């Protein structure tokens, strides 16, 4: 099994996915343990002084005006975790919680939070044991960090609340810790606050979304190419020199993908034969421009995520001076605006990619625009309805995605007696992006289902039966059929076919099938 070592230099986006989805083991590096110990000495020195220090010897938020004596500080740290673990609603997915835990560990390992080394190793032990805290859907405003979600995680470290074991069952956290030989953490000064004051939830979901959206952009290039092929479209618009005169890198990458998928096709360029037209419709001709803009948006979001990964998001932070001392400073680095903005931006790009894919699907089903294909790709139109309602389902998904594209980050709601009077809503932006990408997977699956059926039907039409699809299109169609995505024929119960198409897109089988012919795609 892959092991991810967390050190002072941070981690990578791929490591987040390995831990969140692949259950990779986690170790705290020697450099991180040394940095943790050094920062803890700063906290211990400040705790021994009479002057109040936020997070060490004061209350929190609007209650920071109260100085807390040494006899109450352990209780103070326990209480912030207990009181902030106030989430409601359904449980958040296991991969999101694991990503959140891992990213909080990454910040602890930076040496800027002031927690003891044993707190960081306890978090790594929790991940390695496969214990997943029960985090609820609602509770984060994306400022002062993802407070409630992180608090539910800290509660599990303390041996309180509920968590999911490796077997997927929800049980008392104390039982799970004991079963795996783990001791509950006894929090000391600053540690409760340090465990719950970061952007780790929204950042973890952004990291997972980057992986998912990247795969879907490639899948959408493939289905767009298959649709162009089934519509006898002009592949000349994909020429590299045409895209070089508008040098957006994502556009060039998408055009190159489509060009490689269509290589060797005998169907492209025959639009003048079946129904003369000078140019293809925008949804076909502009596919690289739209998907390419999504790619460039993804690259921008990745840059923001990598910067956030290089950050130590906490308040206050410990700034060691390199001579065994240091200081603790309040700051606003926990504000989720940078992450929230790109989460919203990705939802917009995903919605537009879905929108153009749905328009291509509709074109394949409309006999007035499909250039010789039967209405709704039906076996016996009138008796059979074909894929008419599959497009309805796709349209419903796209419509919801347009609503999900409304940005969460433009909203703010004051909290904590107006101390926290502007918040990012980044957690909400991340949650709706996950739903949007689930929908996009299904939208691409419907286009795949429609385009492969249309390519099959081309082989039965007098005008095109001698014209073979390209090798990549044939490979994708064959792999889809082998995966349970049935081909043309009389009407049948469609949901199993659509579910199989969704799985074919979601697990990367679509891309892998095309790449058996094209080689690695962008």
TrEMBL record:
The modification 2,3-didehydroalanine (Ser) is found at residue 144. Signal peptide: none annotated. Pathway: Amino-acid degradation; L-histidine degradation into L-glutamate; N-formimidoyl-L-glutamate from L-histidine: step 1/3. Keywords: Cytoplasm, Histidine metabolism, Lyase. There is a cross-link at residues 143-145 (5-imidazolinone (Ala-Gly)). It is an enzyme of class 4 (lyase). InterPro entries: Aromatic_Lyase, Fumarase/histidase_N, HutH, L-Aspartase-like, Phe/His_NH3-lyase_AS. GO terms for biological process: cinnamic acid biosynthetic process; L-histidine catabolic process to glutamate and formamide; L-histidine catabolic process to glutamate and formate; protein homotetramerization. It catalyses: L-histidine = trans-urocanate + NH4(+). It is found in: Cytoplasm. One of its GO terms (cellular component) is cytoplasm. Belongs to the PAL/histidase family. This is Histidine ammonia-lyase. The lineage of its organism: Bacteria, Bacillati, Actinomycetota, Actinomycetes, Kitasatosporales.
């Amino acid at each position: 099994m892959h092991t991810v070592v967390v050190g002072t230099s941070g981690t990578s986006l791929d490591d987040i996915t390995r831990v969140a989805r692949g259950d990779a083991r986690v170790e705290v590096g020697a450099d991180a343990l040394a940095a943790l110990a050094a920062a803890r000495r700063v906290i211990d020195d400040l705790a021994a002084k009479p002057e109040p220090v936020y997070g060490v010897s004061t209350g929190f938020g609007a209650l920071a005006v109260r100085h807390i004596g040494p006899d109450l500080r352990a209780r103070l740290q326990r209480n912030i975790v207990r009181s902030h673990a106030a989430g409601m609603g359904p449980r958040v997915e296991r991969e999101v919680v694991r990503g959140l835990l891992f990213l909080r560990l990454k910040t602890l390992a930076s040496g800027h939070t002031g927690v003891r080394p044993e707190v960081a190793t306890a978090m790594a032990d929790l991940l390695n044991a496969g214990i997943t805290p029960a985090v609820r859907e609602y509770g984060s405003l994306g400022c002062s960090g993802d407070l409630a979600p992180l608090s539910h995680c800290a509660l599990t470290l303390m041996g309180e609340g509920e968590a999911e074991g490796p077997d997927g069952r929800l049980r008392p956290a104390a039982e799970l810790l004991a079963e795996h030989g783990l001791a509950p953490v006894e929090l000391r000064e600053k540690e409760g606050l340090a465990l719950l004051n970061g952007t780790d939830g929204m950042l973890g979901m952004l990291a997972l979304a980057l992986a998912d959206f990247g795969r879907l952009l490639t899948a959408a290039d493939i289905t767009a190419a298959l649709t162009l092929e089934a519509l006898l479209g002009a592949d000349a618009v994909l020429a590299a020199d045409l895209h070089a005169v508008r040098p957006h890198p994502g556009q060039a990458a998408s055009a190159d993908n489509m060009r490689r998928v269509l290589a060797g096709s005998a169907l492209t360029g025959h639009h003048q034969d079946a129904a003369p037209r000078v140019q293809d419709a925008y949804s076909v001709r502009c596919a690289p421009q739209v998907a390419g803009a999504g790619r460039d948006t993804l690259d921008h979001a990745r840059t923001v995520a990598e910067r956030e990964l290089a950050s130590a998001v906490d308040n206050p932070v410990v700034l060691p001076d390199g001579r065994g001392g240091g200081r603790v400073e309040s700051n606003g680095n926990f504000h989720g605006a940078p992450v929230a903005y790109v989460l919203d931006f990705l939802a917009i790009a995903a919605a537009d990619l879905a929108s153009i894919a749905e328009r291509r699907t509709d074109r394949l089903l409309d006999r007035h625009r499909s250039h010789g294909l039967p209405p709704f790709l039906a076996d016996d139109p009138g008796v059979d309805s074909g894929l008419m309602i599959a497009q309805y389902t796709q349209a419903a998904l796209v419509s919801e995605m347009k609503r999900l594209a409304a940005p969460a980050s433009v909203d703010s709601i004051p909290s904590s007696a107006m101390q926290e009077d502007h918040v990012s809503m980044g957690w909400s932006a991340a949650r709706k992006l996950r739903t949007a990408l689930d929908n996009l997977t299904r939208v691409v699956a419907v286009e795949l289902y429609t385009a492969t059926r249309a390519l099959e039907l081309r082989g039965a039409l007098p005008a095109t039966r001698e014209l073979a699809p390209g090798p990549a299109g044939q490979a994708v169609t064959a792999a889809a059929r082998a995966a349970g995505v049935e081909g043309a024929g009389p009407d049948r119960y469609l949901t199993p076919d659509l579910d199989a198409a969704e799985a074919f897109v979601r697990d990367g089988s679509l891309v892998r099938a095309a790449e058996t012919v094209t080689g690695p795609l962008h």
